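Quick illustration, no need to memorize.
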Amino acid sequence: MGRIRVLVVDDSALMRQFIGDILRSDGRLEVCGTARDGKEAVEQVKELRPDVVTMDVEMPVMDGLTALKEIMRTRPVPVVMLSTMTQEGAETTLKALSLGCVDYVGKPSGSISLNIKEAGKEIIEKVIAASSAKVRAYGAFSGMGTKMQSSSDLFSGVKSGGAVRGGTGRYDIVAIASSTGGPMALSELLPRLPAKFPVPIVITQHMPKEFTGSFAKRLNESSNIEVVEGFDGLTLKAGRAVIAPGGSHLIVKRRSGTAVVGLSDAPPVLSVKPAANVMFLSVADEYGGNVLCVILTGMGRDGTDGAKTLKQRGAYVIAESQKTCVVYGMPKAAVDAGIVDEVLPLNEIPDAMLRIVKG
């Protein structure tokens, strides 16, 4: 297998050199070209046909978002965006994700980041993961911030007592794990749930603390259910989905008999914080096996160990299938562990969630 060919796009010659040096330091990667603005990037993608593109956001002539949209329209290729870790950067990155970028890397500081090498390991890991990602042409995805028809018709027609393979037959909470590709997946899944979804939902999406608030707000605007960023003491209730805040593990606990959100500052688990494993284990402690566990697209294996504990207590586990995953890592790890009850494409998961929690 040949090396992964990467096109580096940045208006700063110094940044192009730094990023190129980082990529060349790994024998699996090859810098096949560079571009100094979005217009050049679109032309280079057509000419060079790279496996992955790293793209800055703020550039002259044509900015990164406009270039991304054009690339995904004319010749879809995995794109990793370079973004500042600010509120403005969060909004831009979420927009990029809605346009089809696979992942993003935060610049350590400023628009010309001389300390970009601090992010070297992350850049290499995400570029390699992106090389095997599945991308869709612009317009094939409904996009964040777009209200979608829920599965309420199916919900109203489901009768209690429906057959469900495995599990306890009673599900009082849904726990979801996602990582690379997760923002798009959640933006397709949550808007398809009815406002009267009968149990609470807790979600760990690997995302920095600067991003999760904006992400939850966008999901809330496009969903029938309520979607919020978690905070200590927030009540879990039917029709509410809670996103783990970046930089903290989300845990579930009881306060005066009521299930609420707790936040943990424990170290990262499997190099991620928040970690789905931590959330799943806390859910197992409070709900036993009365849990529907869903593992969506993502790099790595976060979620498998926690889902195994849930499964041992009687929980029901769904994994997203390879054919719709952007990166088939986390679901594959769970499938390989033998703890998954159903493997489903993303578009079938909302209806399955409704069927199971009503079963």
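The chain is about 35% helix and 20% strand.
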